Amino acid sequence: MSTVLEVLPITEMFEPSNCDDLCALITSAHDSETAIYPLGGETALNFGLPAKHSGWGVSLKQFDQVIDYPARDMTITVEAGVSMQSLAETLAKENQRLPIDVPQASEATLGGVIATNFNGPRRYGMGTVRDYVIGIHAVDGTGRAFKGGGRVVKNVAGYDFCKLLTGSLGTLAVIHQVTLKVKPCPQRSAIVVGTVKNLAQAENVLAELVTSATTPAAIELLCGPVWHDDAIWDGDAADELAIAVGLEGTDAEVQWMSAQLLEDLETWGVENCREVEQSKVADAWTSMSEFPAQHQSPLVLKGSVVPGATTKLIEAILGVDPNCSIQAHAGNGIVIASFSEFPVDGLSRTLLAKLHPVANSAQGNIVVLSNPGGHEMTHQSVWGGIHAPFRLMTDVKQRFDPQGILNPGRFVYV
Asked: In 346-404, where do the E strands start and end?
């Protein structure tokens, strides 16, 4: 994993311990037009365009306290520097959870997960982090503290801050406190898996799953050498694909859904159908959550398309690198590809000529999650052909960060 000084041109590091110190620090940076790079667990440093402006690193590691946890209300308020693992342990004491899967949970912080809007396999049945943030406190690029959601009836700016800051990559404000709604832990979790011979069969099975009487928490399509050594895999041929369906609920619900799915999958021609041993289920969930970050890859891409085009995008990616490993949140049209080697045609040519057209035709786009070598990291290659109102986004950026000091040049603004 890259270190912060290898990725960001930081001249000084700061670790404020409270909101007042954070406000004072950002105010000083605003007045001196110094770039600010907010830092959490530093697990997504390679996400976004390379930083070009020297500036200050601002770590939120000291913002790691639980502020309020009225468990009966199914909400919790914590500081944004808390790690996802620590948050999970706190919630587990009350048999509750935040059902968001992120890699490197012991290091990844809540604020970083919100800023990058990262979501894992359970997004199909449980939603995304954006759905769970109900209150947020942050400091904008002028050093002004603000808050929204939670007990606030209306924020004066008229923005839905919770949704606006989710996925903004720290370019609008530095998040320092969050209120979340949480869910009870399920009585049981299970994963039903099977293998298919090709993408055409996978597409047919995925279409059938949409109409299934079961209610999966996750629908994953897996292929590539990384998965062949995993407990989820039970196929023989290297060119097979695995379909993994995550189930959660009461014991009775999961037992019925598992039996129903096994019957359905066999009817649809899926082979090697089985339920993962209960003792291995937690490890299987972890494998699917960790995939985007657990392997040394020269390039990791994430494509987002309409669900019906998932296999089409996978086919295009395999055409570029037949040995790459892929995890698709197939029920949501999210495809994560870990390449075995950097594309011989180069990143820009590969994306523009082979992958972006496929994604664009399916109302989607492709972004670069990780490119440790830093080759060809242009705005178009990193953020793809996003058909977005850039002018409106730039206007919002100007209101929150008029000097452009927060993570300058790393996000979609042009």
From this structure: 365-370
